[in-house]
Amino acid sequence: MKTLKAVKCGESTKVVKLHGDGPIRRRIMDMGITKGVDVFVRKVAPLGDPIEITVLGYELSIRKADAELIEVF
Amino acid sequence: MNLKIALVGNPNCGKTTMFNALTGSSQYVGNWPGVTVEKKSGKLKGHNDVEIIDLPGIYSLSPYTLEEVVSRNYLLNEKPDVMINIVDSSNIERNLYLTTQLLETGIPMILALNMTDIVKKRGDLINIKALAKRLGCEVMETSAVKSEGCAELAEKAITLGKSRQKSKPLPIFSTDITKTLGQIESIIKTKSTTEHPDFYAIKLFERDEKAIEQLNLSDTVMAEITALTVSCEEAMDDDSESIVTSERYQTIGRIVSDTIKKKASTGMTPSDKIDRIVTNRFLALPIFAAIMFLMYFVSVTTVGAWVTDWTNDVLFGEIIPPAVEALLVSWGTAEWLNSLILDGIIGGVGAVLGFVPQMFVLFLFLAILEDCGYMARVAFIMDRVFRKFGLSGKSFIPLLIGTGCSVPGIMASRTIENERDRKMTIMTTSFIPCSAKLPVIALIAGALFPGSVWVAPSAYFIGVAAIIVSGIILKKTRGFSGDPAPFIMELPAYHVPGAKGVLIHMWERGKSFIKKAGTVIFVASITIWFLSSFNFALEMVDTNESILAALGMIIAPVFIPLGFGTWEATVATITGLIAKETVVSTFGVLFGFAEVAEDGAELWPQLQMAFTQMAAFSFLVFNLLCAPCFAAIGAIHREMGSAKWTLIAVGYQTAFAYTIALIIYQLGLFFTGGGFGIGTAAAILMIAALLYLLFRKPVSKTKQKQLIPVKEI
């Protein structure tokens, strides 16, 4: 299973499924990261975490630990 | 007739600006998610019978964050007559996600398409008529910043509110789900009296605990609903929350592609270009350091300090007191009254108000950083470091500012939107030695550690260590336990900060502090003045014969395990509550000097007699870490917004200070050949307790009773 965490900077991908549960998972979905959505990994923070992604045309910062819950192609 | 209009929208969509435009009030607006934590209300300009309620910015009506629950409860229980859903059109897809949920509440709704100028600049075209038709509600173009369209919007909202035309849910869901939702809805309609059956049908389908609680249906009815949900989930091979969310976004995608003509993207926007440099892998940290240094340098050491020094030394030193004194003398008032006004009120409140100019300079910077969008990047850059000990990336700014003065530092914590992180930052900010603690450090270092270079730096080291240790300990306690807050944060586009907004922000924050100085700090200063100026016979005496001295003697034994159980040291510590540098002048008074230098050089011989090195260091540590001055306690109270949490914070700080000072003194005594005593045993026990608190497993949050079994996926 490949997760968003493993996607390299500057690459685009598509969301397959969300793992985890509770508030974090819901928050991820509420922010528009749902099945079939395109996600572009823009950059990694200078200290290596979190990452910045583009989804639905806006910028989102997400920790790698949370990105691991997002299964991608 | 009284009409209630609720403003609802995503964080950072221009909601508070709209509120200001509609009510003519001056609520602060920041370019950064989560500025409104509580709901605010005001009267519509020119309509005394129309109330506008500014709800916290939310992304969804899910039950997980405080903001969402506040907004949701307001909408469902307080029954506003109309909602104005403010939509940031430059980010329309995510904004419409909330819109789809709002339509399900049935409350009459009008949609304000805000920030359309950005969309036009991009070259995108929004077909407003088509959008209104698809959404089934009125859509209006507005620019809250320029106050365009706001008056018309309010008029339309009033008309809509009077007509009571309910909003209708969008046809979002596929046939199977619509069927299931219909079944759940008919159950709700027969078993409860709710006015929002559409909303609750979806919420029960999503297993929303808050909704389940509110409807309070019987177990058999719930089992029936669960069965419907589970069979639908099995058919779709996904869980209900995912199904609902995905279908919402899919519907929005269709609406947006039908009603908005997007110009092919033309590469990087100016915001992208700025971000490319500012959060660049190599440049981000140097730029961050430079900005922080500049902010600190200007507000704490140069401009702010000049003004503050002038306020403290000249305005409240040379101008006001002599003038007031002359006035009082000319009136022939009693001596005690003169003392109350001059030493108690002007001395106490003046010491605090002296920080106001510094704070205004700092708040100006913070306002600019927030408004332009850099603050969100600070969190992005620093998150990794601070998360380790339970703080947020944004905690860096309060701590940095705290090296100058804890008061603005604590107030800067307001930029942390997560409540737990914010409380923790407030509690730990004053551990960092502020500038007022420097004279205390200089006094102890000069008197008992002459020529030593490690005492002053160790104060900072102990401060930083105290923050880290406290972060880890507090994170594991019940009050701060629970799931880590998701750090899934929007990074808003940069924009040039508006002068008006920035000034309003600076003023609002400064004002709230001045108000505090006028109340809590005022009373506290008078109390300390009274205790230190009178004896029990209510005669005016010198401090060393006062009630405070008597109290000092009673309390002093408490500090014996810390090595400084003398009443002088106790009284000095207590007066340090007015301002930490007062510790030095109190020693001066107690040892019979009228005037002492800032580092108290005159006192050194007496202090060498009164303290051993160990006791002096322990005294220093206790005074650095214990409850901060009244001004800072006032700021804590202002930011915590609760007396209970203020007590918890100050109590924790004092207990922590006591523990650390005791460990240092007792172990110091033991290792310098003092022998093993009860104190040593206590120190070892306290170390063990600290280590336990540091390394134990976090307290798990009591699981809420789940009424519907969650399907494994």
Quick recap of the structure?
Chain B: GTP binds at residues 9-16, 34-38, 54-57, 114-117. With 73 residues, chain A is an alpha+beta fold. Chain A has helices at 22-30, 64-67, and strands at 2-3, 12-18, 38-44, 51-55, 58-62, 70-72.
Question: Characteristics of this structure?
Answer:
heterodimer, A: 73 residues, alpha+beta, SH3 type barrels, six-stranded antiparallel beta sheet, 18% helix, globular, B: 713 residues, mainly alpha, Rossmann fold, Helix Hairpins, six-stranded mixed beta sheet, two-stranded antiparallel ribbon, 31 helices, 9 strands, elongated, disordered C terminus, FeoA domain-containing protein (chain A)
Verbal overview:
The complex is a heterodimer of chains A (73) and B (713). With 73 residues, chain A is α+β, with helices and mostly antiparallel strands. Chain A has a single domain (2-72), classed as SH3 type barrels. Chain A has two helices and six strands, in the order ββαβββαβ. Chain A has helices spanning 22-30, 64-67; strands spanning 2-3, 12-18, 38-44, 51-55, 58-62, 70-72. The longest helix of chain A has 9 residues, at 22-30. The radius of gyration of chain A is 11 Å and the shape is globular. The model of chain A has no long low-confidence stretch (mean pLDDT 90). By secondary structure, chain B is mainly α. Among the domains of chain B are: 3-163, Rossmann fold (3-Layer(aba) Sandwich); 175-261, Helix Hairpins, CATH 1.10.287.1770. Chain B contains 31 helices and nine strands. Chain B has helices at 15-23, 66-78, 92-103, 116-122, 128-135, 150-163, 175-191, 197-205, 209-215, 219-236, 240-259, 270-278, 284-301, 303-331, 335-353, 356-372, 374-387, 396-402, 406-412, 419-429, 438-448, 455-475, 499-533, 547-555, 567-575, 582-590, 604-610, 613-625, 630-640, 643-674, 678-695, and strands at 3-9, 40-43, 50-54, 82-88, 109-114, 125-126, 138-141, 260-261, 488-490. In chain B, strands 2-3-1-4-5-7 form a six-stranded mixed beta sheet, sandwiched between helices. Chain B has a two-stranded antiparallel sheet with strand order 6-8. In chain B, strand 2 and strand 3 form a beta hairpin. Chain B is elongated, with a radius of gyration of 30 Å. Mean pLDDT of chain B is 83; it is low at 30-36 and 701-713. The chains are: A alpha+beta (73), B mainly alpha (713). Chain A binds chain B through residues 18, 21-32, 34-37, 43-50, 52, 56-63, 66, and chain B through 59-60, 62, 64-65, 91, 93-94, 97, 238, 241-242, 245-246, 249-250, 275, 279-282, 284-285, 376, 379-385, 387, 483, 486-493, 710. Strand 5 of chain A pairs antiparallel with strand 9 (488-490) of chain B. Chain B: Belongs to the TRAFAC class TrmE-Era-EngA-EngB-Septin-like GTPase superfamily. FeoB GTPase (TC 9.A.8) family. Chain B: InterPro entries: Fe2_transport_prot-B, Fe2_transport_prot_B_C, FeoB_Cyto, FeoB_GTPase, G_FEOB_dom, Gate_dom, GTP-bd, P-loop_NTPase.
